[in-house]
Design goal:
alpha+beta; 6-stranded antiparallel β-barrel; 360 residues; globular; 9 helices
């Protein structure tokens, strides 16, 4: 329970369905100690924790706060920093869902003798051939299936997503109907929880001593390798970035590649962002125990990506090559790739590299 409308309505629905409910709020991050200037907001703030506790009191069930700041810092935040220092663009929400939140919730569920965990994610769980898999929610604007690709079969067996068959307006109305008018009007946060000012560059500087001195003075080069300017440090740029380069070229230029070993950032025209494939590792197969060779899917390379028809080719182990049926711009190593058959999640993984083949 984050104190927001989605987890609150989830608790209400499970309670009304006859389940014995225990509320859990996870403290993942203490932004006040991170050196940021913005007031702490979101699921880790004291106000949000108090809101969650008040709902539990009103509905008559127990509420606990679980402090997972150490685990979160050791895994999610260290990975976030390491990925940028490696020239990649991480997706901390996927990492947190896969390795932290479910793990922490299941441990506490076991300790409290709870059979299931329920969250406010907008997604559905379906079953085929004795396998559980994620499918898109009714509300496609709020759908969160993309960030859940890493969940294991064990996690899915013990999870419930009661909001998956509702739209956000319906959820707001349910809160209002039950007397939570303020909650129904509560603003949502779309920021990374530990970077609430949305300035990841300043966050990296606070986390890594002397970062500017270590990475400043590197070169911008064009795709022919010619030096065309100097940048502030390769970790402060992402694939597809156009604004904030500090240079004028007379035409739009984009970050097309990051080379951390030489502190070099490659810039090119928009067509030079095109890729017609990618390699994806750390793949979690979801709908099928083994993803069929040559399976045609819609591949999403970021949360708001509409997706592109693709073919999946097994390379080895948990690694795939993805062939796009259309040109795709902005394939960013470190981000998640998620594969869909209709609304169903076939699986997902971490983008290792974009591929540019001779046909482009």
């Amino acid at each position: 329970m984050s104190g927001g409308i989605d987890s609150t309505v989830t608790a209400m629905l499970m309670h009304e369905a006859g389940y014995e409910v225990i509320g859990i709020t996870m403290k993942t991050w203490d932004y006040a100690n991170s050196g940021g200037e913005k007031k702490e907001t979101g699921c880790c703030s004291l106000d949000s924790i108090n809101d969650a506790r008040q709902v539990a009191v009103n509905m008559g069930f127990h509420h606990f706060i679980v402090d997972i700041r150490a685990e979160f810092g050791d895994y999610v935040i260290d990975n976030f920093v390491d990925e940028y220092l490696a020239g990649r663009t991480p997706n901390p929400c996927v990492l947190c869902n896969t390795h932290i939140k479910w793990s922490a919730l299941l441990k506490r569920a076991d300790a409290l003798d709870c059979e299931f965990i329920a969250t406010g994610h907008y997604a559905q769980i379906k079953e085929q051939d004795d396998r559980l898999y994620i499918s898109k929610s009714k509300d496609l604007q709020k759908d969160q299936s993309y960030v859940l690709w890493g969940l294991s079969q064990e996690c899915l067996r013990r999870s419930r997503f009661p909001l998956g068959t509702f739209t956000k307006p319906e959820v707001r109305q349910m809160a209002a109907d039950r007397g939570y008018l303020d909650l129904a009007k509560k603003a949502e946060s779309y920021e990374i929880c530990f970077v609430p000012d949305n300035d990841y560059r300043s966050f990296l500087r606070r986390r890594v001593d002397g970062l500017d001195e270590k990475v400043s003075g590197g070169h911008f080069v064009n795709t022919q390798g010619e030096v065309i300017g100097q940048h502030q440090g390769y970790p402060f740029y992402t694939i597809g970035q156009r604004k904030g380069l500090g240079l004028a070229f007379g035409e739009p230029m984009f970050v097309t590649e990051i080379r951390p070993e030489s502190n070099t950032v490659v810039l090119g025209k928009i067509d030079e962002l095109i890729r017609n494939g990618m390699t994806v590792g750390q793949v979690n197969a979801m709908k099928y125990a083994n993803i069929p060779e040559g399976l045609e899917v819609v591949s999403k390379i970021r949360y708001r990506d509409a997706g592109t028809m693709s073919r999946l080719i097994q390379i080895d182990g948990d690694k795939l090559e993805v062939e796009f049926f259309a040109h795709v711009k902005g394939v960013a190593p470190g981000q998640s790739a998620v594969f869909y058959e209709g609304d169903d999640v076939v699986g997902g993984g971490v983008i290792y590299s974009g591929l540019l083949k001779a046909s482009v």
